TrEMBL record:
Pfam families to which the protein is assigned, alphabetical: CcmB
Localization annotation: Cell inner membrane
Classification of source organism: Bacteria, Pseudomonadati, Pseudomonadota, Gammaproteobacteria, Methylococcales
Name the record gives this protein: Heme exporter protein B
One Gene Ontology term of the molecular function aspect: heme transmembrane transporter activity
Protein topology in the membrane: Multi-pass membrane protein
Annotated organism of origin: Candidatus Methylobacter titanis
């Protein structure tokens, strides 16, 4: 099998498994929706306040929803032995790992991207900032999956690695949260957001290039 066929075979396999275990898709999405809808109940009927903090609410909810789904990235493969078979494959582990991360984003990040505009309208976000919100989610949620994969790979061999995983990845998520939330907030005020978008693009490109290497190395350490 060629490298490209192996790459798409891994993506297809993970998507099929996710469709069979629909909770992997539903749980992060429902968590995302519930957290956002609970904020107006807790804050009260204050439209101006909700509109002001809507970018932060959406992005914090997306970050927490992404963290909720991280443990499933390599856990089932580790338990059934398919992860070891992947590491023994003649194909570069970094490419196969990147395929799994892309499949994870398609299952968990893409649904958040689809429902986010509806929730943004629910929070009273201005219509002219919805495009920036979608763009930041499109650039930022893959970074969450890429960075999270490093933490998952380091903790996949631990029985209770959830707390350690949170401590590892949360500090690395902060730059994405800051620049993405600030971009949406400035777009709502009619200010230019080119600088924040360019920084998010740079972070995404760096994560795409750098993340698969430590993920592959950490998985090999976890297996052996």
């Amino acid at each position: 099998m060629s490298l490209s066929r192996a790459f798409f075979a891994v993506i297809r396999r993970d998507l099929v498994l996710a469709l069979r275990r629909r909770s992997e898709i539903a749980n992060p999405l429902l968590f995302f929706i519930l957290v956002i809808t609970l904020f107006p109940l807790g804050i009260g009927a204050q439209p101006h306040l909700l509109q002001a903090i809507a970018p932060g609410i959406i992005w914090v909810s997306a970050l927490l929803a992404a963290m909720l789904s991280l443990d499933s990235l390599f856990r089932s493969d580790f338990d059934d032995g398919s992860l070891e078979q992947m590491l023994l494959s003649p194909h570069p582990t970094t490419v196969l790992v990147l395929a799994k991360i892309i499949a994870h984003w398609l299952v968990t990040g893409l649904p958040l991207l689809i429902v986010a505009p509806l929730l943004a309208v629910f929070l009273g976000m201005p219509n002219h900032s919805l495009g920036t919100l979608l763009l930041t989610l499109l650039l930022g949620t893959p970074v969450l999956s890429l960075i999270g994969a490093v933490g998952v790979a380091l903790t996949v061999g631990l029985r209770r690695g959830g707390m350690i995983l949170s401590l590892l990845v949360l500090p690395l998520y902060v730059p994405v949260l800051i620049f993405a939330g600030n971009a949406v907030q400035m777009a709502g005020s009619g200010l230019p957001v080119d600088a924040q978008i360019n920084i998010l693009i740079a972070i995404l490109l760096m994560a795409l290039v750098l993340a698969p290497l430590p993920v592959a190395a950490a998985l090999k350490m976890s297996i052996h």
